Amino acid sequence: LIAIMAAHHRFAWIHPFLDGNGRVGRLITDAALKAAGLESYGVWCLSRGLAHKNSDYKAALAAADKSRQGDFDGRGQLSEKGLSEFCGYMLDTAIDQVDYMSSLLNLANLRKRIDAYIQARNDHRVAAMDKEIKPIAGLVLHTAFIYGEIGRAQALELCAMPERSARRLLSQLKAEGLLSETSSKSPLRWEIPEHAEAWYFPELAPQV
């Protein structure tokens, strides 16, 4: 891992292309981390952490560009201490992303975020989504998330309301992309439509 992080800086320092060195360097690093066999890499991503705190990342790169500071600072042209600190920064960023995604995918926390989305809908705080949703939908959506999909009979039962009303609620969830189906008799699958993404997974993607 340390070699991958050190190579990331050295690639950036060599700067082999006229443009796109940062993007290519991050792509190479992501590919190297995935090839290293890190468990769940792809669920969490180092590049996301670097993009999320871009100014800190650039400052860390610049600090590692310093020249060697005396006879006890490595043997090459660049500072070994600076490279060591850069590798530490990169590893800390990786750990931060693992922790972030672990928290993000926590089942108990996700139920709270699903409920928060429904409350926001009912308070008319979700852009372009004016129709309210019955709060019981949170249980249906969370159950679909846990199992990946749920049978229609189970979904109707979870709604805990007259069948006609339950069918209307499920139809609404499908129409709004919160659930999906492959046929009229298939199980219902949990989905992440654009209007719910920021509520389900806050700050997952940094602002461009």
TrEMBL record:
Fido domain mapped to chain residues: 1-92
A Pfam family reported for this protein in Swiss-Prot or TrEMBL: Fic
UniProt cross-references to Gene3D superfamilies, sorted A to Z: Fido-like domain
Signal sequence interval, chain numbering: none
Protein name (record): Fido domain-containing protein
Species in which this protein is naturally found: hydrothermal vent metagenome
Taxonomy of the source species: unclassified sequences, metagenomes, ecological metagenomes
